[in-house]
Amino acid sequence: MTTLVACIDRAGDLVGGGEPPVVGREAVESLVVDVGVTDPEDSQVNCLLEGLRVGEDLSEDGEEAVVAVLSGVEDAVGADRAIARQVEALVDEYGLESAVVVVDSADDERLVPIVES
Question: Which of 10, 21, 64, 99 could be stapled to 72 by a disulfide with Cβ–Cβ 3.0 to 4.6 Å?
Answer without folding.
Answer: 10
